[in-house]
Amino acid sequence: MEPWERISELREQIFRHNRLYYERDEPEISDFEYDGLVRELKDLEEKYPLLAMKDSPTKTVGGKASERFAKVEHKNIMQSLANAFSREEVEDFCARVIRAGSEAGVPVDFVVEQKIDGLSVSVEYENGRLTRASTRGDGVVGENITSNIAFVSGLPERIDPDISYLEVRGEVFMPIDAFEKINDLAMIRGEKVFSNPRNAAAGSLRQTDPAITASRSLEIFVFNIQEISGRSFITHSEALRFLTGLGFQTAPDYRVARSADEVWAAIESIGESRDTLRYGIDGAVVKLNPIDLRERIGQTSKAPKWAIAYKYPPEEKQTELLRIEVSVGRTGKLTPVAVLNPVRIAGSTVSRATLNNEDYIREKDIRAGDTVIVRKAGDVIPEVVAVVSGLRKPHSEAFVMPSVCPSCGAPVIREEGEAARRCTGPDCPAQLFRNILHFVSKDAFDMDGLGPAIIETLLDRGLIRSVADIFVLKEKERELLSLERMGATSVANLLMSIEKAKDRTMDRVLVALGIRNVGVVAARTLAEHFDSIRDIGDADEVSLASLPDFGEITARSVCDFFELPQTKRLLDAMEHNGVPLNKKRAAARNNGAFAGKTFVLTGTLPKLTRNEASELILRNGGRVSSSVSAKTDYVLAGEQAGSKLDKAVSLGVRIIDEADFMGMISEADGYSEESN
Length: 676
What we know:
The protein has 676 residues and is α+β, with helices and mostly antiparallel strands. Helices cover 37% and strands 20% of the residues.
C-alpha cells in the first residue's frame, strides 16, 4: 500500500472511532488500539510532511458538540494531551522541559497525576456561584451540561464570593462499583450494557433528562485552573491545594518530582496502585509545575508542550481455557463463556471471561484446552484476546454453538445481520425476569405495582414461576402480605391491577407475549384480521405475510413462535387463569384526527415513545407504516432521524414533529367537541 493510501485509510478510521468515542460513547476498539492508530498516522505524517493535512486527527481534538445540547464556545480552549508509551519518550519530554527552564533561568520540577478515565469538562463560577458547565467537544465548542453537573459529586455549588471569576477543568468519572451495579441492572432489564466506566460516565453526564444523571453516582476530580480573577499562583501544586481549600475534589495522590528518574518512579508507583483504586485510570499525566514557564514553552494546535500523558499498556496474562460454557441472558441471548484456570489480572482473580459470540470464537479458533491470553477490556471486563500458538493439545475439537437453549430446550435462532443466537422460548426460565418486566409494561398488560424489585422478590420466593402465574397471585395473598414493604394497601392495589389487566384486548396480549418483530402496530394488525390468538397460531406463513406491513420476516417470526410447545402451554395457562384470548379492541374513530391517513415514524421523539405515538395514530383512525412511499401522508420525525426522512424529502411527503402531531390531535378534538 502506498503511504498516501495508508494515511488516508488511517484518517478515515480515526475520524470514525472519534465519532464513536466522543459523540456516541460507543467505542469499538480499546484505547490502546486507538492510540496505536494515531501513533502510526503521526509517524507517517512526520515521514511524509507533504501528505500532512491541517485537519488531520493528529492535530485536532476528537469530538464535537452534540445537537441535543446547547453549544458553548469555550473561553479557554480545552486541549488534549500528547501521549507517551515508553520510558524513553517520557525522558525526552523531561529533558526538553528542563532545557527550556535552564534557558529561562527557572528551576524545573514536575507534578505527576493519575490520568482519570472519564469525560473532560469545564466548570465556571462567577462571584462565587456555579454558572456554567460544558463538555470539551472539539476543544473550541462544547455542550452545555449545566443542568446535569449539579448531580456530580466533588464539585461545590458555591465558593468564596470574592472570587469574581473562576474556570476549572476536571474529569467526570463513574466509580467501578457504581458501573458494575448499573450494568447488572441493565442486564436484568434486557437493556444495553456499557463497555467500561468511561463510556458509562460520558453517557450518563450527556443525558437530556437530569434525573438519569442524578441516578448514576458520578464524581469529578478537578485537575487544573484554566482562569481565575484577582489571584495568581507560582506552581500547579499550589493551585491544587487552593482548589482543595475551596471544596473541590482535586486530582488525587499527585506527586512532585524533580528529575526524569523521579518522574518515572512516580509513573511506576501510580501504575502499581491501579489495582487498588475505586475508579479507572488509563495512564499518568506529567505536568510542568512552574506556571510562568508554561507560557514560555507554549502549545501546539492540539496539546500543550509542557505536559504529556503516559499510557499504561493493558495487562495480559496466559492461562488454560478449561472449557466453554454457554449462558442465557435475560434477553435470550446465548453468550459463550470461557472457564479459565484462575489467573490474577488488574487487581482481581479471573476465572471466567467473555468470548462474545460464535464468530469471535471461529475467527480466533478458540478451543477448550487451549493456552490463551486474557486481559480486562477497559481494565474491567475479562476477555480472551488470543490463543498461544504451538501449545494446542492433540485431538482438540472446534467449538459449536448449541442449536437448542441450554436453559429451556427451545430452538435457538440467529437472524440475518445478527452476531448472536437467541432462545425462542416464550417462558424460558433464564429470561423470566425480563419477560415479566415486558409482560407487565405499559404497552402490554400495564400492571401497576409490579416493578423490578417486586418481581425479583416474587421470583426469589417462588411465588411465580411463569408469566401466567401473575394472574393467580390473589390465591397467595397471605404470602404477599408477609413480604417486606408490602402492606395491606399495596397488596390490595396490586391484586386489583392484576384483575383489571385480565380484560386487556388481543393486541395488548400479543405485545405482552414478546413475539420477535411484533410490536404495537403489528399486534394491532393481527388483532384486526383474526378473531382470536388461537386463530393466529393456525394461520400459515403465506397468509400472514400478506397482511399490511408484514412481510416474510415478521410472518416467519409469528409462525415460529406459535409452533413452540412452550407457546401452547403458556396460552393454555393464561386462559385457564382468566385471560381471554379473543377480546377485540373498539373500532377506531372514523372522524378521528388521522382518519384515513398513513404515518411513518423515524427518530427519537422528545416526550412520546414510538409505541405511544403509534397508539395515538391508531386510536385516531390513522395507520402506521414501516416504510415511506408516495402513499405516505406524514412522516413524524424526531432526533437522529434516518434514511426515512431523506426519502420523505425526495418524495415531497409532509414532515411533522411531535409538537405538530399533538397540535393536530388537539385541533381535531376541539372541532369534534364544538360540532357535537
